[in-house]
Design a protein that fits this description.
This protein is mainly alpha-helical. The chain contains 9 helices and 4 strands; from the N terminus they run H-E-E-H-E-H-H-H-H-E-H-H-H. Helix content is 35%, strand content 6%. A two-stranded antiparallel ribbon has the order 1-3. Strands 2-4 form a two-stranded antiparallel sheet. It starts with a helix and ends in an 11-residue tail after the last helix. Pathway: Protein modification; protein glycosylation.
């Protein structure tokens, strides 16, 4: 993240992936979607008690933060990255989460879901997940192709080489057909209203940073 911050390009969003995700949107589509976010971060989070065992013995967290569980992969605004790298709050939280279980799944989410901090683009409520969290991970197969090619999600995870590899091959062909069409000037349908009216955009923090040191 620090290397990206130092890059001379004035980028607006940072996307952190694990290397196992498949892109469901072309680069052109991603640019349009990120513009529709209007500075909001796409960083999941839940305060479900089933995850509290990961950090319970290390409480309290710095600055009396509510610890939030999320995912490693994030879509973060430039302002959020600035806060992560340069604020004392983020530095102290990073040191605090390191001995806990799966710290990379709590660090970014905790910063994004504690509205009293005023982190740029953060979520104004402490809970983004309104459904149910489960530990199982879906390994996609051919039966998932229709859903994957019609979902508003940006990336898909996960595929296995030893389980229905045809699913990955078909998705790859579908993706590059989209890229080929764009290169030929074909306007692909993209419903941006799904992103513009999403909860993370409606409830994004737009004010000044409230707690830096």
């Amino acid at each position: 993240m620090k290397r990206v911050w130092a890059h001379p390009t004035r980028w607006r969003y940072f996307i952190n992936l694990t290397g196992q995700e498949f892109p469901l949107k072309t680069n052109k589509e991603l640019v349009q979607i990120l513009k529709a976010f209007r500075g909001a971060n796409d960083i999941s989070g839940t305060n479900d008690p089933q995850f509290h065992f990961r950090w319970k013995e290390f409480l309290p967290a710095p600055f009396n933060l509510t610890v939030i569980k999320g995912f490693v992969y994030i879509v973060a605004s430039r302002g959020f990255v600035d806060y992560v790298i340069h604020s004392r709050v983020a530095r102290d939280l990073l040191r605090w989460v390191q001995p806990s279980r799966n710290p990379d799944e709590t660090f970014f989410s905790t910063l994004n879901h504690n509205p009293q901090l005023g982190v740029p683009g953060s979520f104004l409520d402490k809970e983004l997940c309104t459904g149910k969290w489960v530990r199982t991970v879906c390994h996609f197969g051919v039966g998932d192709l229709y859903r994957l090619t019609h979902t508003p999600q940006l990336f898909a995870n996960k595929f296995s080489y030893d389980f229905m590899p045809l699913a990955y091959d078909c998705l790859e062909e579908w993706y590059f057909e989209k890229v080929r069409a764009e290169n030929q000037g074909v306007a692909l349908p993209l419903n941006l209203s799904v992103y513009e009216h999403s909860l993370l955009v409606k409830r994004r923090y737009k004010g000044p940073v409230l707690m830096w040191d």
